[in-house]
C-alpha cells in the first residue's frame, strides 16, 4: 500500500500543496477552517509527515536533549529525583509535540560525545541537570548558540537561563524550625559543595544559626543514603550532645535515621531530624520525616516552558520556586 503524499492530502482537502505544508509544519498563517479541512484529510488518509523533509523546512528536529551530569550508576539509583525530573520534563515536552533525548555526561568521554551530537544539529535545545563545579559543558553549549536552560542555578559563570527552588530560604526555614522547637545544638549534613544546591542549603543553615547566635556544626555528604549514615556517625562521635540535625536532602536523612536508631538515639526525643525535598519515602520512614518540600515536578515543567519560550524569543529571566515546610513526626 503506497504511503499517502502531500499532494493527495491537498487534493482531498481542496487546497494547494503549499497550504498543506504550512499546516503540517505548524505555521499559523492559515485560517481555522482551512486548517481543520487539512487535518481532517490528514486523518482520513493516514498521512504521516516525512520528518527529515519537515526538518529541512522548519529547521527544527522536534527533539530536546536532557543532559544529566552524572554517571548511569547515580541516575539509575535509589535517588528518585532523577526519575521525577526526567518523567516530568518528558510529559511537558510530549504535550508540546517534542521528544526527549536523554544523555548522561558522567565522564570526559561522554562530554565530548554530547558536544559533537549537539553541534551536529540533532536537537533544538538542551536542558542541563545536576551540574558539578567547573563543568565545561554549559559554556561549550552556550558557544554553539543552541538554546539551553539549567535545572538549578549554574555553578559556572555562564549566563544561562535557569529554574531553581529557594534553597537558601528553605534551609533557613528548616533550621529555624528546629531552633524554634527549643533545640540547642543543631547540626547539618550538607550536600556536595561542588553543587549549587549543596552550597545554598549550607548557606541557609548557617544564616539561621548565625542569627540565633549559635555555632554551626557541619558534616558533608554527597546526597546518597550511605553518605548520610556515615556523616551522622561522625557527628555523634564529634559532638554526642547534639539534639537536632538539618539534612540537605531526604535520601541522606533516611541514612541519618538508620544511624540514630543503631546508636540508640530516639527521634525526635533525643535528636530531631529535618530533611529537604519531600520525596515519597519521607512519609514512610520511622518516624515520618519532617522536611522542606522541593517542587521537583513543577520545577521540571517550568524548565521546559522556559526553554520552549526561548524558541519564540521569550524572556530568559531566572525562575525561582518557593519551598514549603512539611511537619511530620521526626522534628
UniProtKB/TrEMBL annotation:
It comes from the Bacteria. The keyword Transport does not apply. InterPro entries: HTH_LacI, LacI/GalR-like_sensor, Lambda_DNA-bd_dom_sf, Peripla_BP_I. SMART domains: HTH_LACI. Residues 4-58 form the HTH lacI-type domain. GO terms for molecular function: DNA binding. SUPFAM superfamilies: lambda repressor-like DNA-binding domains, Periplasmic binding protein-like I. This is LacI family DNA-binding transcriptional regulator.
